[in-house]
Amino acid sequence: MSLDTAATKPHEQLAAALADDLHAVNDMIRARMASEHAPRIPEVTAHLVEAGGKRLRPMLTLAAARMCGYDGPYHIHLAATVEFIHTATLLHDDVVDESSQRRGRPTANLLWDNTSSVLVGDYLFARSFQLMVETGSLRVLDILANASATIAEGEVLQLTAASDLATTEGIYIQVVRGKTAALFSAAMEVGGEIAGQDAATKQALFDYGDALGIAFQIVDDLLDYGGTKATGKNVGDDFRERKLTLPVIRAVAAADTTEREFWVRTIQKGKQAEGDLDHAIALLGKHGTMESTRLDAIAWAEKAKQSLSVVPDHPLKTMLVELADYVVARIT
Amino acid sequence: MSLDTAATKPHEQLAAALADDLHAVNDMIRARMASEHAPRIPEVTAHLVEAGGKRLRPMLTLAAARMCGYDGPYHIHLAATVEFIHTATLLHDDVVDESSQRRGRPTANLLWDNTSSVLVGDYLFARSFQLMVETGSLRVLDILANASATIAEGEVLQLTAASDLATTEGIYIQVVRGKTAALFSAAMEVGGEIAGQDAATKQALFDYGDALGIAFQIVDDLLDYGGTKATGKNVGDDFRERKLTLPVIRAVAAADTTEREFWVRTIQKGKQAEGDLDHAIALLGKHGTMESTRLDAIAWAEKAKQSLSVVPDHPLKTMLVELADYVVARIT
Question: InterPro entries from the entry (chains A, B) (predicted)?
Fold first, then answer.
């Protein structure tokens, strides 16, 4: 590999390799988010769909399909579908997140946004199913309906598990599958499905997306406590929002009585004072949970790469393998 | 027809004729709204799905399928699907409606309900698509994905049209199709679809549901201004919420300068004072818009009945015809 190629990030390499397909996906997204009767719909979605997203999820579908030799038209529909489901989820997340953030200071504007977010999200969700129907594949509908149920289930689970110190690592992984991995794995699997792959290959594609999504989310949660490299991200958001992520779940499990009282006060009861975040980070360090979580993320990325071993060599496969490394590169 | 039968309401007759099917639908609803990982989901839906709804929409699917001679298992799946979509819509409407009602007085409880409503609605929507996939019919998925898009579009349109005196009768009907008629028509059509009916029959079933839904919603809007019979409903909710419904749209169209100023103040600007509702009702009376709206509702019910003329005679067809009469009986 030349130095030039090495200098390009894997998702940029994928975008370059899939440029024509991505162009077609963007055209389809624009065409299908239009609404004859409700012009507000594209207004609400435009900033989400247009504004410089990496299109990571649709790229997974395109890459999976192309890597498996697909040359029909429907990988475009499915990539647009996946982006619509992702956007609908983001819109509904806005409502969920705003709810807690705006406590005691609701504004007409926020309320209007809330209603628009719910309804436009519903519209995109319905649109995504219309796109799937056009592919003529019931299996595709099955895969993405299942993923949609897992996403919603994971979000509800996150809501009920929030600030509950009894949250286990198992529940955390379940939440992460819903939040992130379910759409990654479905995006990969439907690519193999329309390419007519056998069960083992489709399972491999699914496993890659699942493990990549979990690695991706664990890294995100880790960086919220500072990670090992400086990033543009605000440190401590999850702590302030009392979200139980893997480093904290492990620190709670290892806590002595005084430490447990600290977690009960700050996370469970939400009574946080100056210096608490620093103390929390110190406790994660004391019990080595940042490090153990980091190793978990790397192991998931490794699992993603190994899942693809059954897939024949292909330039896109190489990029997907490198993408898995890249996802955890921020913490290694 | 005996006096005894005449004394029973048409939807009760349908429920009796379809008792076994409805029992199976209820069992399926209970089984499918369960969630292994998120027990909060059935908690949230139980009061909506269990508590004494008329099951009008699933009954339309069951009646359409049975009337067309269907004897397979999938009308149960589709009836449950239709009820799930309806319930998901109600949950998301809660968010939309609460937003305006609770202005200035948000509570943690309300906020929690909001987030649960959004996510559990999403879950039921995903579940409904899983049920459709089980029927193995892409056409069924097509019909209900289209209906879902129309529902969301209609809700967004209602939001943007709200309190806008430029709202036309055409926009009103579009909103009503989204709010009510789209699911009625789809519920009927999918019944014919799984029963393997020809295009003309499926169109007739769709048309019946469409016209019945529009009649149903117009009657509802009419009763909000008192209608012609006493009901348990609060009069004036739509006026206070500044919703433009058919009687008002027509009174605005016929308004002189002073009357227009009244509508601009009360509906567009929302500055309402004691006595305004009475004055609004007087204006509807002056321009005869309650009466003309009433005649429209009756005409839609008539259209519903006539749509079924191509369907061979069947006891369930008789009940559906009587249901159309019953829907407008409250205003005749």
Answer: Isoprenoid_synthase_dom_sf, Polyprenyl_synt, Polyprenyl_synt_CS
